[in-house]
Amino acid sequence: MKSFIFTLCISVVSLIYAPMTIAAEKFTLELEMNNGELTPPILSVPAKTPVRIKIRNTGTEPVEFESTQLRKEKVLAPGANSVVVIAPLKPGKYTFFDDFHLAHPAGEIIAE
Can you spell out the DSSP letters for 68-84? Predict the structure, then answer.
């Protein structure tokens, strides 16, 4: 009887924590910033999943990834690489831009 209860407890704990482990995995994608040009300009991500964006500045000037909606900003020197981690998003569209090159079009993160 004790082994049955122990097995039952382990099963219940596994069912509770397994989805949390899966949800904690980050969806990773890459963004290239080059003197105001964003490649790709539209990033599609799964909703309700943490997102990790690897940013590369391939330009000759500093860039700043910024999203006021997501409350994120990251400055990169020419040739630098960095990462921005975004908490799980509700379905929708979120704008980001290069704050040092505002004359260029903004990018968009689409969570679906």
Answer: TTTTEEEEE-TT-EEEE
Cβ atoms of 49 and 24 within 8 Å: the answer is no
Domain 27-105 has CATH 2.60.40.420: yes
Q: Residue 33 has which token pair?
A: 């910033």
| Extents of the domains making up the chain | 27-105
Residue 18 is given by DSSP the state H
How many C-beta atoms lie closer than 10 Å to residue 65's C-beta?
A: 23
pTM of the model: 0.75
**Chain segment 89-110, per-residue pLDDT in tens:** 999 999 999 999 999 999 999 9
CB distance 59 to 33 below 8 Å: yes
